[in-house]
């Protein structure tokens, strides 16, 4: 599996979760949005650095913007910073 496939699979799973739960309580608001970025980052640590770097740049539009129905609670910079924090904290 590639990092891009992982990202797309995660989006599909999140949309099913959101549909089955009439919302997305654990990912609501800014803190929930940042939580999603961190959890996504932890999942990315299993991929090679080059592959991670490539997908992280597009993950905001692929994952964040779509999951939050074009209204994310954070901007791309916050999203990407949170992903990198999770990757580096998890790899210690």
Account of the 3D structure:
The protein has helices at 3-20, 29-44, 49-67, 76-90. By secondary structure, it is mainly alpha-helical. The protein has one domain. Helix 1 (3-20) runs parallel beside helix 3 and helix 2 packs across helix 4. The model has no long low-confidence stretch (mean pLDDT 91).
Major β-sheet annotation? none
The tally of strands reads: 0
- Total helical elements: 4
Span of the ends, CA to CA: 24 Å
**β-strand amount:** under 5%
**Can you tell me the residue ranges where pLDDT is under 50 for at least 5 consecutive residues?**
none
Helix content: over 70%
Mean residue pLDDT: 91
Note the run of SSEs as H and E. HHHH
**Looking at the structure, what is the overall shape?**
globular
Integer-rounded radius of gyration? 12 Å
How many discrete structural domains?
Answer: 1
The secondary structure category is mainly alpha
């Amino acid at each position: 599996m590639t990092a891009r496939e992982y990202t797309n699979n995660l989006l599909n799973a999140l949309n099913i979760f959101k549909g089955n739960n009439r919302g997305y309580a654990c990912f609501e608001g800014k803190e929930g949005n940042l939580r999603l970025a961190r959890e996504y980052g932890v999942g990315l640590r299993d991929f090679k650095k080059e592959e991670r770097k490539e997908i992280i740049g597009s993950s905001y539009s692929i994952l964040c913007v779509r999951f939050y129905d074009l209204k994310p609670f954070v901007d791309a910079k916050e999203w990407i910073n949170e992903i990198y924090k999770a990757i580096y904290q998890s790899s210690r």
